[in-house]
Design goal:
about 0% strand; globular
Amino acid sequence: MIENRAPSHFIYLGLLALFWGSAFAFVKLSLESLTPLTITAGRVGIGALIVTLIALKMGRKLPNNLSDWLLCTVIGVTGTVIPFFLLNWSIQYVPSSLAAISMSLSPLFTITLAHFMTRDEKISTNKLIGVFFGTLGVGSLFYGTVTDIGPSHTVYLALLGLLATSFSYALAGVLVRKLDNKDHLSTASAMLISATLITIPLALIFESPMTLNPTPSAIYSVIILGIFATGLGSLILFHLTHLAGATFVSYNTYLIPLVGLTAGYFWLDEAIKMITIISVTLIFSGIYLAEKRKKPHG
């Protein structure tokens, strides 16, 4: 039960929400003078260095067979390379707070994916109703964004990119379940290393980062993203999951959008409108209904 949790559990949960929720604002700041793939390569590379050094210092070994590396690479691509790039590209054209809220759809995507990709997590009536509420929420949110910014192909693509980002995170989450018997710290290192080895060449080929002239705020933003959102965030995620369980960690679904809204409001002067509040309420209601467990009788 939540009331019996140690105070440290809530501290870790709050830090994770702070690191991940504020990341959207830092991405927006870094996009002032850097490009999407370059930002991805920078933050993933820094995160990989931090996690790998800590893993090795703790005596953990990296995977030693090809099949584990292939699975870590697939998860690294679906959970890091693709969503980071899509998120960075999309935030160029929409508010960072919108991106933060959109990421809360991942649990609803996970429920849908798990229905088709697992044998023991089929969609129930509660889950179906929850997905419906979540769909209403994101529909109203996107409608409000298009009305505010103005309809254009770029805006529509950015909104589609956010949905694809959330879907990619959900897909990676389902694939991670195949690593249940693996050492999480070493596999996290392998995933980030694989992602780094993929994103750096892509950035060099398609964006020529050496020709860019980044501002100090953009450089600091990427460093912060790499250290906190990617590196330390991964470590806290695995540590907290071990201490408190995956269900407790999932409460971040509610906290991250709130942190993202607050960061966008105070740091980037992004307005919080009534339709945003209504959309967040619908999405949160959908997540709650979808994850609600029936109480045992007796």
